[in-house]
Amino acid sequence: MAGGMWCSPMRHIGFLRPHSAVTTTKASGCTVLEDWWTYILWIVRGCKVMNLSCSLWQDNSPSVKHFAFAKFSVVTEQCFFLFTLILLMFLASLTGNALIALAIWTNLVLHMPMYFFLANLSLLEIGYTCSVIPKMLQSLVSEARGISREGCATQMFFFMLFAISECCLLEAMAFDCYMAICSPLHYAMRMSHGVCAQLAVISWGVGCMVGLGQTNYIFSLNFCGPCEIDHFFCDLPPILALACGDTSHNETVVFVVAILCISSPFLLMVASYGRILAAVLIMPSPEGHHKVLSTCSSHLLVVTLFYGSGSVTYLRPKASHSPRIDKLLALFYTVVTSMLNPIIYSLWNKEVRAALRRTLDKKKVLIHG
Description:
Blueprint: E1 22-24, E2 31-33, H1 36-44, E3 56-58, E4 61-63, E5 66-69, H2 76-106, H3 113-130, H4 133-141, E6 146-148, H5 149-182, H6 187-190, H7 193-219, E7 228-229, H8 236-240, H9 248-281, H10 286-314, H11 323-348, H12 350-368
Helix pairs in contact: 2-3, 2-4, 2-11, 2-12, 3-5, 3-11, 5-7, 5-9, 5-10, 9-10, 10-11, 11-12
């Protein structure tokens, strides 16, 4: 027994021999041995391959209890290269977002609505990447690519919690820009600390409700096999593809929810920036144009990166989906955008740059003092 499961030599050890020596059953999607030499080799290896075990059978009903992420490449060097690249970007993302959140928290001059939302965005980015990247890194360089059904559901919930919350928070940031530019005399009253806190709570609350609802909806389905997830993490489309029977109705529901969660905040942002553009066009001074550009340009770039990759991933027709393209897009919106956001805000915003310098100077004093 390994990992609390019976070690069945008849499943999931096709990688021990060349492909010509194995077959795949349609019923389970699992690899079956054709000769006893592989079985002997399996015994020698001490059942280590059971990290990829698919399922347990209960009540005479097939139900996959464990999944396994597909291997990125059979070429070890490619996997290690991608592991190193993702690890470096992950560490850069964590460091950048943590520094921005710390700088905003420790500098009173940044205790304003715009930076309050930016600190929340940094926390969301940290949670967003931490919910996905560690398991992704493990799967790239280890044969332990398995994940339990409960673990997969947990990962999906947290991923959706942070992703949907970020959609809503980006809209709150667009509304803050709109109020600052189009209604400056009433800005302090309408964007008080209480209002900002309510908008942040609503963003996190919507993310939590959608995450719970979608995760419960997906994992209420039966999974008969195959058990291999052709992706880096437990995302909605690849998990739904493993469900039993006709899932067209389920796919439609997931697609509609994706449209509501992605398009609704985006349309509100378009309305906010439409009003901002109208206000800019009637400004007589170039200084006013520069102020608007410095205030909104970083947010617009972050929105473009986040919504662009998200829309291409979740709103394009099913027929155009490709596992390899989906994986590349997943790498972009889980790793690259999270790494770029702190860079974008620090480059475009001189107050953030100054606060980061003060924070780093304080750390140097503490270290050398």
